[in-house]
């Protein structure tokens, strides 16, 4: 991002195949190689590209109001929520089993 003089929150234009392009907001990802970018499935679909395809990134200074805004969660957030929900469900099941065992011992 430094070579392109892009910073977190900058508006960028990504161009893909067949004259398709889309506007995005630049975010920093330290795990991604310098010559690569990371984009979600919606952006890839809009650009008509697949994983590994070549795209071009341009700084986009003057952007009018957008027609659509789509905010996506990262994989880490989704994974964290799934793990947390799994632990909650396990705890609920465990407490239900304990309650049923206590009910059995009362009679």
TrEMBL record:
Pfam families found in the cross-reference section: CDC48_N
The residue ranges of the CDC48 N-terminal subdomain domain are: 1-63
Is rRNA-binding found in the keyword set?
no
Q: Where in the cell is it found?
A: Cytoplasm; Cytoplasmic vesicle, COPI-coated vesicle membrane; Golgi apparatus membrane
Question: What InterPro entries would the database entry show?
Answer: Asp_de-COase-like_dom_sf, CDC4_N-term_subdom, Coatomer_dsu
Q: What is its main location?
A: cytoplasm
Whether ATP-binding counts among this entry's keywords is no
- Which UniProt keyword terms apply here? Cytoplasm, Cytoplasmic vesicle, ER-Golgi transport, Golgi apparatus, Membrane, Protein transport, Transport
Membrane topology, from the record:
Peripheral membrane protein
GO terms (BP aspect): endoplasmic reticulum to Golgi vesicle-mediated transport; Golgi localization; protein transport; retrograde vesicle-mediated transport, Golgi to endoplasmic reticulum
Annotated Gene Ontology cellular components are: COPI vesicle coat; Golgi membrane
Say which family it is in: Belongs to the adaptor complexes medium subunit family. Delta-COP subfamily.
Described by its record, this protein's role is as follows:
The coatomer is a cytosolic protein complex that binds to dilysine motifs and reversibly associates with Golgi non-clathrin-coated vesicles, which further mediate biosynthetic protein transport from the ER, via the Golgi up to the trans Golgi network. Coatomer complex is required for budding from Golgi membranes, and is essential for the retrograde Golgi-to-ER transport of dilysine-tagged proteins.
Instruction: Write down the PANTHER family for this protein, in alphabetical order.
Output: COATOMER SUBUNIT DELTA
Self-association state and partner proteins as the record states: Oligomeric complex that consists of at least the alpha, beta, beta', gamma, delta, epsilon and zeta subunits.
Question: Know the name of this protein?
Answer: Coatomer subunit delta
Q: What's the source species' lineage?
A: Eukaryota, Viridiplantae, Streptophyta, Embryophyta, Tracheophyta
